[in-house]
Structures are given as C-alpha cells and as structure tokens.
C-alpha cells in the first residue's frame, strides 16, 4: 500500500488481493451498476487505447479526502500506450491511461444512473479525482491524465 500524509488528509492506494476481488466491487455499487461499470471500462479502453487487447486488471481501493473508490488498472507489458485524445494522441503509461479511463467512466455513469447508484458513483468520481490530484504517486503522469480527462 502506498500512503501519503499531508496536514489535511491521507491518500492511500491498496492493491486488492486475488481472493478478495469478487467481493470488492459490490462494496461500491449494485450488481447491475457493477456490470455496467466493468463493461464501460473495457469498452472505453478498447475504443481509446491503441492496441488494447484486453487482459488482466489489478483492482485497487483508493482513499482520499472525498472518500473511497475502486480503481481498475490494466496490466500490460508495454511501457508506453497511446490514448486517443480529442485533439491529439497522448502517450503515457498504462497506469495513467487506466486511471483516466476510470475517471471518465465514473463521470459519464454519474449522468446515466439514478437514485442511490448515482449518488455513490458521483462520490466515487470525486474521491478518485481527489486522489489523482493529491497522491503524488510516481506512476501517475499528471499532464497526460488531464489531457485524457479534460
């Protein structure tokens, strides 16, 4: 687990063990939302990351000033991936590409969902974005993250 403490808060990122993966996402969303969320992550990766070919994802739980959120990170042997941006292609690492896609999907789903599912997704979006801006994790390419998400 990587932890950063500031005067105001602590940000953390915790890798979810293989044996805990099946019970992890249901902590954050209903079964119906869970399937939509995973499908949208995989679809967005396929549409926006050149050469994406599926594969294994590591599951993380992040904690920030705005709460907790799930984070699915695509594992690839490539050191650099290219994400199709609105105005240009963005070269970055798979951690940053996955983080940005997670943020985009949570934002988009916040507009699609209703009731409690919507409230939870909005909270998770804000928690993930706050973590991304404050964590100072060496795996995050901030310039690329903001180009992909903005």
Structure report:
This protein is an alpha+beta fold and 150 residues long. The chain has one domain: Alpha-Beta Plaits (2-Layer Sandwich), CATH 3.30.70.3580. It is built from 5 helices and 6 strands. The protein has helices at 21-24, 31-48, 94-112, 115-134, 142-149, and strands at residues 2-5, 10-15, 57-64, 67-74, 81-84, 89-92. A 4-stranded antiparallel sheet has the order 1-2-3-4. A hairpin with a 4-residue loop joins strand 1 and strand 2. Helix 2 packs across helix 3, helix 3 runs antiparallel to helix 4 (115-134) and helix 3 (94-112) runs parallel beside helix 5 (142-149). The longest helix is centred in the C-terminal third of the chain and has 20 residues, at 115-134. The radius of gyration is 15 Å and the shape is globular.
Condensed summary:
With 150 residues, the protein is an alpha+beta fold. 46% of the residues lie in helices and 23% in strands.
What are the salient characteristics of this protein?
150 residues, alpha+beta, Alpha-Beta Plaits, two-stranded antiparallel ribbon, 5 helices, 46% helix
Low-confidence stretches: none
Query: How many distinct domains?
Result: 1
The strand count comes to 6
Overall mean pLDDT:
91
- Counting helices, strands and paired strands, the structural category is alpha+beta
The CATH topology corresponds to Alpha-Beta Plaits
Number of helices: 5
Largest beta-sheet details: 4 strands, antiparallel
Give the class-level CATH name: Alpha Beta
Main sheet: strand order: 1-2-3-4
Annotated CATH homologous superfamily: Antirestriction protein
């Amino acid at each position: 687990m990587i932890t950063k403490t500031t005067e105001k808060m602590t940000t953390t990122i915790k890798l979810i063990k293989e044996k805990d993966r099946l019970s992890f996402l249901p902590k954050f969303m209903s079964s119906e939302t869970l399937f939509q969320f995973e499908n949208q992550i995989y679809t967005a990766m396929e549409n926006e990351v050149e050469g994406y070919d599926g594969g294994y994802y590591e599951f993380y739980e992040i904690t920030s000033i705005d709460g907790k959120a799930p984070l699915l990170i695509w594992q690839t042997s490539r050191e650099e991936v290219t994400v199709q941006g609105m105005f240009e292609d963005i070269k970055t690492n798979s951690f940053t590409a996955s983080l940005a896609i997670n943020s985009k999907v949570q934002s988009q789903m916040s507009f699609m969902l209703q009731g409690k599912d919507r409230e939870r997704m909005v909270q998770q979006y804000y928690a993930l974005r706050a973590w991304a801006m404050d964590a100072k994790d060496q795996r995050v390419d901030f310039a690329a993250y903001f180009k992909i998400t903005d």
